[in-house]
Amino acid sequence: MSAVFVNPYLRYGIGRPLIDWPATTEDECRVVIQAAKNAIAARKTEYADLLEDEDVDNLPARPDIPAIHIRVDETKSMPDDVLAGLDFIIEEGRSVNIRVSNTGLRATREYITGTMDELTPGRIGLRTNNSSELQMLFPDTGAPDMAIFTDPGTVAYMSTTKGPFQPTPAKAYATMAEAFPQGSAEYERMQSLFMDAARELSDIRPDMDPITAKAMGLAWSQRWARIIPNLRGDAHGNVTPDRMHESVWELYQSWEKPVPYDLLLGRAADDDGYTLAAPTTGAAAEIPRLSETMLDDNELDRLAAQEAAIELAKTSAKPKTNDELAIELFASMGRPAKPSEIYPLMVKAGYDKSERTFRDLVAKLGLQDKLTRRHDGTYAAADSDEVPHAGRVPGPEDDPDGRGDAPHD
Q1: CA nearest 10: which of 339, 247, 347?
Q2: Which of 167, 241, 280, 290 has the most other CB atoms within 10 Å of its CB?
Q3: Pick from 333, 277, 278: which is nearest to 304 by CA?
Q4: What is the pTM of this model?
Q5: Percentage with pLDDT > 90 across the chain
């Protein structure tokens, strides 16, 4: 579930990850639970005076003390100890703004624990042929009439604290371009939805408050050094530069090796059988905010050239062809680049085709010697003085006027 939120950063180097801590393995989930418990204890102690001064019962969310939201996809797949930890966070974390939301394929006790059932006021249900599951999801009001699920994507939702207080129909919208007719406004918007979100939200997302970050320790500060092999590594966890954006790879290479799971989770022992304590200090593996002060003049010039090319493509009375725009954006990089680096810029300029189609376009430009393909899969804008490869048989795609029956001048 987290891939679409972190890929704009991992694959394209855009902004910062939209999710701060994706946990895709059982051990990483255990580390998250342990860190959240430590954060709850620290916030209750360290912010007690703040609660008294502001005369509130629950810690308010604000830029310097962000709310923490743990989102669980498919609770049935969680180990029992992780589920028990989630129950603890649901019970203890609300007063310090550390909360949990869960999703499950079905509404049965295998998916919804007793604590979740008792302490979750907001509920959303999809259509099901088993009314007993809706009865469990909406126990006080009874199962809603299936007649309210009129269209694909219709859901029933309610909240016992904020309303509506009865299951009410609502429309849920897909966030994948493939769910909409190709060429439609929704299709075009969804093509770049998460990349646009990464650009817009990266600068305004808050950093973790120092009290909470300190309480979570290396579990928090080294999370990305552990996560990237889980997200972008092969079946054995090996990470290679072709699996991520160049800037992400350089940052990943600069980090020290993180503390292993066995130490973090208290499973490591010495020769005498005594449990080894997890280290409390170590090198952090943080993703910095990208700002103009971090870029040299050449990088700023390159970004300005890209923005100028994009704006010109969007506003020109005679729009540039996709071929022309792609070549110009490759040239603006000032170095060989992967198609995956240029595709977000093309989308920003109005390109409405899929990434696979764009890769085909780039391959075609390579065959036409308008781009130069390198052995590592990157492309560079060809020198204008370069003589095209004479050994290749020209094809219809070489005609700048496109296919057609009209005679050439």
Answers
A1: 247
A2: 167
A3: 333
A4: 0.69
A5: 26
Q: Give the CATH number of domain 2-217; options: 1.10.730.10, 3.30.70.560, 3.40.50.300, 2.120.10.80.
A: 3.40.50.300
Task: Give the domain ranges of the chain.
Answer: 2-217, 296-381
pLDDT of residue 345: 85
Say which amino acid occupies 256.
Answer: E
DSSP string, 306-362: HHHHHHHHHH-SSPPPHHHHHHHHHHHHSS-B-HHHHHHHHHHTT--S-HHHHHHHH
- CA–chain centroid gap for 282, Å, is 26
Element (H, E) at 331: helix 322-333
What digits encode the pLDDT tens for the residues 40-57? Answer: 999 999 999 999 998 999
| 89 touches 52 (CB < 8 A) | no
Residue 123: beta bridge partners?
158
pLDDT (tens digit per residue) in 271-310 = 888 888 888 888 888 887 654 444 445 655 566 666 666 6
Q: What is the 8-class DSSP label of residue 269?
A: B
Q: What are phi and psi for residue 196, nearest 5 degrees?
A: -65, -40
Q: What is the pLDDT of residue 388?
A: 41
What does the alpha-carbon distance between residue 124 and residue 106 come to, in Å, rounded to a whole number?
12
Q: Is the pLDDT of residue 270 over 80?
A: yes
Q: Largest Cα–Cα distance in the chain?
A: 89
Among the listed residues 11, 8, 20, the one whose alpha carbon sits nearest the alpha carbon of residue 208: 20
Are 264 and 278 within 8 A, CB to CB? yes
- 3-class DSSP state of 374: coil
